[in-house]
Amino acid sequence: MEKILEEIQKDKLINKYLYQYTWLSGSGTKVYPICAKYKNNKINEIIIQINTKRNYFEKLIERYKGKYNKIEYGYFSKTDDSCPSQLVFKFKGV
Predict the structure, then answer these.
(1) Distances (CA, A) of 61 to 21, 32, 41, 65, 71
(2) Is the pLDDT of residue 27 over 90?
(3) Which end of the chain has less neighbouring CB within 10 Å, N or C?
(4) Does residue 86 contact residue 32 with C-beta atoms inside 8 Å?
(5) What is the mean pLDDT of residues 32-58?
(6) What is d(CA 54, CA 17) in angstroms, rounded to the nearest whole number?
C-alpha cells in the first residue's frame, strides 16, 4: 500500500488540485495535504486535501481501483468552507 501512496503523491491530477499547506482542525490538530491512516501497522486509508469543490476525480478513482485490487473504494468529498475538500481511498481487509 506504500507503493499506492507513492504513486498518489506523484499523480499529476492530484498535484494540480492538492492543497499546498497544512491547516489546523479544531483547536490544534495539524492536517497535512496527504495523510495516511494506519490500522494494525498497515495503511487502511489515504486522505488527500483538495483545493477545489469540483469533482474532477471519478476517472482517477476508477483507474486506481482497477490497477490496485487492494483499494476497496474511493470518493471525493466536497466540504463546507470550514475545511478543504477531500479525496479518500479506503483499503480492503485492514
Answers:
(1) 23, 21, 24, 6, 9
(2) no
(3) C
(4) no
(5) 94
(6) 10
